Amino acid sequence: MIYNFTMKDAQGNKVSLSDYGGKVLLIVNTATGCGFTPQYEGLEELYKNYREQGLEILDFPCNQFGAQAPGSNEEIVSFCKLNYGVSFKQFAKIEVNGENEAPLYTYLKSQKGGFMGKKIKWNFTKFLVDREGNVVDRFAPTVTPEKLEKSIKDLL
Known about the structure:
By secondary structure, the protein is α/β, with parallel strands linked by helices. It has one domain (29-155): Glutaredoxin. Helix content is 26%, strand content 20%. Strand 1 and strand 2 (14-16) form a beta hairpin. The protein starts with 5 loop residues before the first strand and ends with a helix.
């Protein structure tokens, strides 16, 4: 279950995902130097529009795809706030594929495979989790945040 995982936030604090019980979660692996980076704007818009109804966006920077998240956790947070006004929860950089992948991502991929089987294809792959902690959908990087609105509203 998703609530069994504890992750480090961008400040290095441990955060239990059980803290998000009863919320709809959108979990995204991100990068600050990617062609999809402008999706931060759409993610922030979703968060502003639906956080009061129970949406939480969990941002996991990842440098595995083209080294497009090279900065420190602090630099990434600063970039996102300055350029996109990000106010949703940002976590420490992780790996989402391979030998050192975060156990959270091993779990997410086991629940929703995707186009490349279990592998994450690129930055801005998105997982949607319902209020009970079930992974209900996975979206490719090319699916913009705006296209997720109906799926999110259905769970709220």
